[in-house]
Amino acid sequence: MTLSFTKLRLYRQALPLKHPFQNSSTIVTEKDVLFAELIDQDGLRGYGECVAFDSPWYTEETVETAQHMIQQHLWPLLQSQEITHPRELNLDSVQRHHMAKTALEGAVWDIYAKKMKQPLYQVLGGKTNQVAVGAAIGIQSDLPTLLTKIEEALASGFQRIKLKIKPGYDLHVLEQVRRHYPDIPLMVDANSAYTLQDTALLQQIDRFNLLMIEQPLGSDDLLDHSILQQELKTSICLDESIDTLADVQVALALKSCQIISIKLGKVGGFNQARAIHDYCQERGVPVWCGGMLEAGIGRAQSLALATLPNFYYPADPGPSNRYWQRDIIQPEIGMEKGMITLPEQPGMGYQVDLSTSEQVYSS
Ligand code: MG
């Protein structure tokens, strides 16, 4: 069996978030999402999503740069390849641009799973269609609002709570949250808001019995993270620092962290994500699935990845209705008792509805 691709359409849609999402560096109120619809020689359709934001605050990519890279470089490269399995796909002659690559690679995997008449999670190697999910709660204007959001998330069944923190919104917030919820699985994400000069402050989070602290320092600061981890009992999880398997290899060699967050879109797709997963599994390092405020396609594909056995902590990508008034897949992704059940239909298993999206490219 060979896979070759005859047509690509790109779509964009501005999706307003139900609730603005604030971390230590930005507030997201709406996401401009880029979708790829790929068609193979047999007429099978596969879908992928680019998870870039509209400005480069999180990584260097934006929706605009991704669309440009796909049209001008990645689509011609994909057309030139004839493969028998998605793991043979090689887009390495284009440097980085992981989010753009993921939009195409995700569509290739979707088509392949449909050809094999198997659900995507199974062709990836997942053994279960159940994924435990946690809630990520952004920075809130006041403590009562935060406590209400936590209460609502726990009542909906989410299996752990992740709080965004930043300087000035950290220890006293944790103090209050732990006073009300002494035992819940709790973690924090600093999105690089601190430096080694904050070591004494960060050591104080050890008393809150957190699952982990995610990305306390800068994305390029693997060495500083190594120094900080020696001073903390709390496990450091790296997120922004992890773009490639090589990043993971250096981080683990330096003991910069004890947990890795894998984001499908950020590492460049399933092939790289699986390589990172396997490398960590062989070394007893747990991973979990991070989120990028994905719309339905990226969300379904991230959750399929999260069925692999070394995904240990609850995933960030949760049910559609937590984020969107109306998602672009049917049925929308639902959650029961903190678990998402992935469909058993071939491919990612959801119908894509692009009727309200704008087609921006066709070739
Ligand atoms: Mg993070």
Features:
seven-stranded parallel beta sheet; binds magnesium ion; TIM Barrel; Enolase-like, domain 1; 21% strand; 363 residues; alpha/beta; four-stranded antiparallel beta sheet
Write the layout of secondary structure elements.
Elements: E1 5-22, E2 27-40, E3 45-50, H1 63-79, H2 98-115, H3 120-124, E4 130-132, E5 135-137, H4 143-155, E6 161-164, H5 171-180, E7 186-189, H6 199-203, E8 213-214, H7 222-231, E9 236-238, H8 245-253, E10 259-262, H9 264-267, H10 270-282, E11 287-289, H11 296-305, E12 329-330, E13 339-341, E14 351-352, E15 358-362
Parallel strand pairs: 5-6, 6-7, 7-8, 8-9, 9-10, 10-11
Antiparallel strand pairs: 1-2, 1-15, 2-3, 4-13, 12-14
Helix pairs in contact: 1-2
Bound molecules: magnesium ion.
What does this structure look like?
The chain is α/β, with parallel strands linked by helices and 363 residues long. It has two domains: 5-118 and 352-362, Enolase-like, N-terminal domain (Enolase-like, domain 1), CATH 3.30.390; 123-348, TIM Barrel (Alpha-Beta Barrel). Helices cover 31% and strands 21% of the residues. It is built from eleven helices and 15 strands. The protein has a seven-stranded parallel beta sheet with strand order 5-6-7-8-9-10-11. Strands 3-2-1-15 form a four-stranded antiparallel beta sheet, with helices on both faces. A two-stranded antiparallel sheet has the order 4-13. Helix 1 (63-79) packs across helix 2. The two termini are 24 Å apart. The mean pLDDT is 96.
